[in-house]
Amino acid sequence: xxxxxxxxxxxxxxxxxxxxxxxxxxxxxxxxxxxxxxxxxxxxxxxxxxxxxxxxxxxxxxxxxxxxxxxxxxxxxxxxxxxxxxxxxxxxxxxxxxxxxxxxxxxxxxxxxxxxxxxxxxxxxxxxxxxxxxxxxxxxxxxxxxxxxxxxxxxxxxxxxxxxxxxxxxxxxxxxxxxxxxxxxxxxxxxxxxxxxxxxxxxxxxxxxxxxxxxxxxxxxxxxxxxxxxxxxxxxxxxxxxxxxxxxxxxxxxxxxxxxxxxxxxxxxxxxxxxxxxxxxxxxxxxxxxxxxxxxxxxxxxxxxxxxxxxxxxxxxxxxxxxxxxxxxxxxxxxxxxxxxxxxxxxxxx
Length: 350
Prior knowledge:
Organism: Phasianus colchicus
Keywords: Acyltransferase, Cell membrane, Endoplasmic reticulum, Golgi apparatus, Lipoprotein, Membrane, Palmitate, Transferase, Transmembrane, Transmembrane helix
Catalytic activity: L-cysteinyl-[protein] + hexadecanoyl-CoA = S-hexadecanoyl-L-cysteinyl-[protein] + CoA
Strand order of the largest sheet: 1-2
Shape: elongated
EC number: 2.3.1.225
Radius of gyration: 27 Å
Transmembrane segments: 75-94, 114-135, 203-230, 265-291
């Protein structure tokens, strides 16, 4: 059992010196290329940071001075989304990728976050630019026939006061976009678009790839830090505190040492772990909605109206039981996400 009779600062400097004095491992051309590209990544992150501040001022002025509260779409959260992704990938490329390559991590594993980023950005663009299912006079008649009214959450004969058209079943008027959307789920500020019948599949893939992307970066970064601890043999050592007392290395000391040695990496790891947990929970919730053929709007409306008299005319002492009229089984529910009946009807007419 070796003893490390050194302070955390001495351990930090010693570990950095050990990395510098370690036998030189020839770098793969991809690693040299990534080192060269990281300068550009940091410049991009700084540019996005400056433009984010400018955008905040511009959009706050526009929102405060616009005459109507409707149609409040803006790109503030989109810019924030891109800035966070750029910051995480800049740190991953600048430090984690290079260190992991020197520790002989598999190249395919290290390149996996970049492949997921390409897929995620593709889904993001499709989800943001695609028509979510805007109801117009030309498609209103066909969309009225797509879903039947359930008589509980969606009543027949209700006219949208803004669009001046009868609302089809499962539709809702979006106050942000100022349009009625078919099979309305919610308005997502991160893609700056509504989520409806026509782009629900893109949003589902976007959310899934974003969750896997965050989890992959978290796993690779955690594996790197664990490898550092194992190579330094710190868990079998000890240290002397300010009072001169000797202590065995504990988890708290280990985390403190790693944070002092790799502050940006540890901070990024905490951020992506938190992001993975939040996105993972939200992704599971969306899987549940897809399997039961519900939208977030319908799930929320049912919870809001569950204890009201809109769902039933039965006496109040009897329990209200609502049956989802649009559920058709797991396979058919999933098929409806990726092949919406309205989309199929539109293709037939073409």
